[in-house]
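Deviations from the work plan: none for this task. Representative record:
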Amino acid sequence: DTGVSQNPRHKITKRGQNVTFRCDPISEHNRLYWYRQTLGQGPEFLTYFQNEAQLEKSRLLSDRFSAERPKGSFSTLEIQRTEQGDSAMYLCASSWGLAKNIQYFGAGTRLSVL
Amino acid sequence: KQEVTQIPAALSVPEGENLVLNCSFTDSAIYNLQWFRQDPGKGLTSLLLIQSSQREQTSGRLNASLDKSSGRSTLYIAASQPGDSATYLCAVSELIQGAQKLVFGQGTRLTINP
């Protein structure tokens, strides 16, 4: 068990470009979450998967954002036509079971849009 | 809409002191409350989780309390050490379609001076 893995760790892109991030959850964790954290703020919920089904999306997830979790394993988060306001740390977390709901977080992908 | 507030935003104390971090939330209908630690540029590490039916949890030098009716939680750190320097985040969980969404405060940036 190597923990939640996110790649890349850092991404610098120009405004208008598309970017894709990957998250590999802890094996056998059926729930996967994406959060976004801007500088000096706490993380904000973006979306949630149970297995391969995307069950909840925040209004923060505009039409330019799309997330997938094929086969209920790894997940990708794509941002199309990036804007400077998309610059943030994108965090992924995974969990198993409801009762204690310990969400284990990855180290995040830091996106800088120039 | 649930809102979580943490006071103070930053705190600097000498090594060895005991300290208290505060967290308040607006909606008492929470499933549980967690305290996380975040080191610069890193992901989140769960420190303590308090179920909504519990009043407190302890782990080593850390003690977290929960008063759901008043919408408050405190994190008490005893005999602080320089290694405790980090940002501490409070998060309450809300039930969403078979899992829980975490709503975070903005964090308290803690510095322990040797």
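The two ends of chain A are 36 Å apart (CA to CA).
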